[in-house]
Amino acid sequence: MFNTQLYTGSKEKDYPLVISQLQALLDGETNRIANLSNASALLNQYLDEVNWVGFYLLEKDELVLGPFQGLPACVRIPLGRGVCGTAAQNQKTELVPDVHLFPGHIACDAASQSEIVVPIMKDGQLLGVLDIDSPIKNRFNEQDQLYLEQFVEMLVRFL
Hints:
The chain has helices at 11-26, 32-46, 82-90, 142-156, and strands at 52-59, 62-70, 76-78, 94-96, 114-122, 125-134. By secondary structure, the protein is of the alpha+beta class.
């Protein structure tokens, strides 16, 4: 259904293509778990130099592991703890060039060196976060942040 050969290596061209692929992939489907599963698989297929792509979903006052691609992960993360808990609590994207310098970083995978976490907001309410880890320091930049926030905005339409 999706041709990865269409990717050019240019974030300005490729991220919009991935976002349109997400829309086509989720169109007509209302199951939240299915949509989050396909979204994580799509990002994992597109992004290079990543070792974990997935979601943590808000349940009461903590984040609980949702659909993901990668090694087994931490199951529960309190709000305000680690990169994911901080992004969720502040409802703001966390772009972390070196996770070892982030206060309170939770090391679910020792190979992870950098991370980006995007809060998932719908109608002013936090649903969870998109979490992406890389074994490379400084893997993510402001362009990734911009486009991943757009990816999450598209995803929210199907949650």
